[in-house]
TrEMBL record:
SUPFAM superfamilies: Hedgehog/DD-peptidase
Source organism of this protein record: Halomonas eurihalina
Family as reported in the entry's similarity comment: Belongs to the peptidase M15D family.
Obligatory cofactor(s): Zn(2+)
Enzyme active site: 160
Record carries keyword Protease: yes
UniProt name for this protein: D-alanyl-D-alanine dipeptidase
Length: 198
C-alpha cells in the first residue's frame, strides 16, 4: 500500500495463528477468513497515525488538540513501544480480518476496511429494523465475524468491525483479564539471530 516500512507478509503470534485457523474452520461452508493486517512495525503505526491525524486536522480545523487526538485514536492507536502499553498491532496479538467467499472476494460489511467513519463501529448496524436487504446482510456478516472470533477468545475493538485482539492490552481491557500476555514484538530475522549469537 506504499506505506514506508510496511512488510509484505502478514505475521502474528503463534497462539493467534492457531486460533485464526480454528475460526476459519468454524465458518459456514463456502466462507473463509481474510486476514488484512497483523503485526506492524512502529514506523508503520506512526505513519498511519500521523496520516489520519493530519487528514482530520485539515478537514476539521475547528477541533482542539485533545478532540483531534480522540478522533484519531478512534481508528488508529497511538504509536508506542512502551512495554506496558504498546500499540496493539506491534505485539502480534492484534489482527484486522473480514469474511470472504469461495473466490476470495470480501463479503459486504456495510463499510470498507479502514473506513474511518461512525458506520464502521462494530454495532453501527444494530438496532434499526427499518432498513433494506443489503443492510441486513451486512449486519448479519458483521455478527457472524464477531461471534466466530469471540468463540475463539478474541475481543473486538468497538470502533472497528474488523479489528480483533488476543493477548494484548486491548484484549486484557475488553476481555477483563488481569493482564496482557504479549508485549511489543520484533521479527526474528536471520540478521537479528546472528546479532544475538555472534
Ligand atoms: C489502522 C486500523 N486498521 C487499526 O488497526 N486500528 C487500530 C485502532 C490500531 O491502530 O491498533
Ligand atoms: Zn487493527
Amino acid at each position: 500500500m506504499g506505506i514506508p516500512g510496511a512488510v509484505d507478509e502478514c505475521y502474528v503470534r503463534e497462539g493467534v495463528y492457531r486460533r485464526l485457523l480454528a475460526v476459519a474452520r468454524s465458518l459456514p461452508e463456502g466462507l473463509s477468513l481474510l486476514v488484512l493486517d497483523g503485526w506492524r512495525p512502529w514506523r508503520v503505526q506512526q505513519y498511519l497515525f500521523e496520516t489520519l491525524q493530519a487528514t482530520i486536522q485539515t478537514n476539521h480545523p475547528e477541533l482542539d488538540e485533545q478532540a483531534l487526538l480522540v478522533r484519531t485514536r478512534e481508528f488508529v492507536a497511538q504509536p508506542s513501544t512502551e512495554p506496558t502499553a504498546p500499540s496493539p498491532h506491534l505485539t502480534g496479538g492484534a489482527v484486522d480480518v473480514t469474511l470472504c467467499d469461495v473466490d476470495g472476494l470480501p463479503l459486504d460489511m456495510g463499510t470498507l476496511f479502514d473506513e474511518a467513519v461512525p458506520a464502521s463501529h462494530a454495532d453501527a448496524l444494530e438496532g434499526d429494523p427499518g432498513q433494506d436487504d443489503a443492510w441486513r446482510r451486512a449486519r448479519d456478516n458483521r455478527r457472524l465475524l464477531y461471534h466466530a472470533m469471540h468463540a475463539e477468545g478474541f475481543t473486538n475493538l468497538p470502533s472497528e468491525w474488523w479489528h480483533f485482539d488476543l493477548g494484548d492490552q486491548l484484549w486484557a481491557h475488553y476481555g477483563e483479564y488481569a493482564s496482557a500476555r504479549y508485549g511489543p514484538a520484533e521479527l526474528d530475522t536471520i540478521e537479528s539471530r546472528w546479532r544475538r549469537q555472534l
